[in-house]
Structure prediction request, 739 residues.
Amino acid sequence: MKACVSPEPGTEPGTEPAGADASGPAPRRRRRARGPRLHPFGLRTRLVLAFLLVAAVGCGTTAALTYRAARNAILEQTQDTAVSAFRDQVDPLVISLPVDTRQLRDSLLVIARQGKPRPWRVYAEYGTVRVSSTDRPTSSVITPELRARAQARPATPHGSFQRVVKNGKPYLTMAVPAVFRTHATKGTAQPTGLVFYAVMELDEEDANIEAMVSAARDGALPALAVALIPALIASRGVLRPVRELRRAAHSMGRGRLDTRIHAKGSDELADLARTFNESAAELERSVAELRDAEARARRFASDVSHELRTPLAGMLAVTEVLDEDAGSLDSDTARAVRLISAETGKLAVLVEDLMEISRFDARAAELHPDEVDAADCVRKTLQHRHWTDPAQVVPYLEEGIRARLDPRRFDVVVANLVGNALRHGAAPVTVRLYAEGDELVTEVADRGPGIHPDVLPHVFDRFYKADQARTRSAGSGLGLAITLENVRLHGGTVRAANHPSGGAVFTVRMPL
Amino acid sequence: MPRVLLIEDDPSVREGVELGLRRRGHEVRTAPTGEAGLAALGEFRPDLLLLDLMLPGMNGVQVCRRVRESSQLPIIMLTARGDDFDVVVGLEAGADDYIVKPARTEVIEARIRAVLRRIEEPGSGRSAVEFHGELAIDRAGLTVAKSGERVALAPSELKLLLHLTAAPEQVFSRQQLLEHVWEHSYHGDARLVDACVRRLRNKIEDTPGEPRYIQTLRGFGYRFGPL
Prediction:
């Protein structure tokens, strides 16, 4: 018989150090269904960032190289033009030493008008003499460095120049020393000590360069924006299958094993999808096989009990006849007859319990709830079983609790727990009934040795025997399993534990 | 001792129940099919019908309906627990009570006695016929008439009506009614009460959907009136 109904792994009560818990709905660890999640550093973000980075580096490098080359070209051309123009202006000057300031100033004014490619301001320095084409004798833009180079010996007749930025404005400063050539020096130029300086503003070149920078930027920004499009397309191409895969995996997790992914294309993701589909099909097949086997086993248990019930109905109806007449038979026959009668009764209980368990397994057990007085309900259960001796069962029932429950099933729960306590524990058994929050709590405690910690997690198992050598007890071995199922059907929990002061305590909590 | 007609297709159950009841002094006639049972009905004139629901050919519910068409014979169904749908259908068809198989003979006999027991009169000084609205209830003659016309009530319906009208406007819970009218335990099947109330309403109410006589108090039970 034991082989007929095997404990279903899924309904095994959870184990706790202090006791065995059995929750109302089958203890499913169901994860909360999640909607599409936002990943701050998800695949899409990373792909887009990578594309943008590549585009930015490309644009930046190109722009920087172009900018540098163009800037140099512009500046060099300006410099060369200016320096050679300045030299051409200075060279033909006829200078008599010592300098005549007025004449020199006139010459400077002439040169200042010839500025090329742009107007310049011209200065001349000789010793401490300072002459300029403007109203100020010298310019603060001319650096000591340039002066030093201009007065170096041997002189550099073609002049030197320097780019200076002052107050945010770029200037080109040039210096050309006035030289004289003598036969004594064999044509080499000798510095006269007089140096001409020219200062030219470079703001137009600067504006040109500025325009180039903004052109580079204006070109780069649309390029980056354009780079977004392939980035989004690529990320969509990757993300859509990934999202589909996630949805499918989630759906499979919720038990929809027929979930499949639309796999198209020949890339790695399509391969992945196909692998997923194959695995899903395999899983579906194995689960279906398991379910079939389980359903067959259950149907078999149910069928067996059904078939046993009909002959039992006939036998049970005549056990009274056997009991009554046993007295007039010889002692051996009488014993045999009484044995048959007693065992028939037990068999009938066992078959009924098996039928009941089969109905729970087949989810065919129905709840017929009614609103009742809970204390009345428990009192009637105890009365009906003749558990009225205070030395055996002591009830502490809170009066006036109206509860919605199935009276027949609640009767089974209380009767099984009290019967179990009387059989395996020791009297007096206390039955406590009270409301706690929105729960109806029924507590059955005995004064026995309690339940061994190894046994505690298994007390609600079917046909579980604490001691393998122990012979069959008065119960069917299904009483606590049926209790558990009945409590679950009410959406409640039942828990077995040991009281600190000794004895086992079973606590049933059911919603009011 | 009451005469019992047992309709049961399984020979061992048939024989076992017959043997057990006969030992207790009942006169028992058995029939293996519904058709044979109906045929035996007229000739045997039983006081009570024990009816298996699962029968070959004409099933128990059909037999029950057929019997109710012409008589108010007490009917107890034999059923297997878990055949919940059959129980409800059988009760709707007019059965007074049911017994779950397998059952000991003492249980079967206790049910038979309960169904056959007459309602005990609470007070002797009352007038035989009571009037409640258009209902006239004769407690001595055990008849009920509505607007002067006799209403045929099955034993359980009659007992329920007598119990409720004995204390008009008092609320009875289903469990109380199970204990007093059906002599079941407190934890019996409340569907017996509900099915019986439905049948009774169909017979005595003007509009069964809006009952006047037998009113429901949701969460508490039933009461008679107030009219």
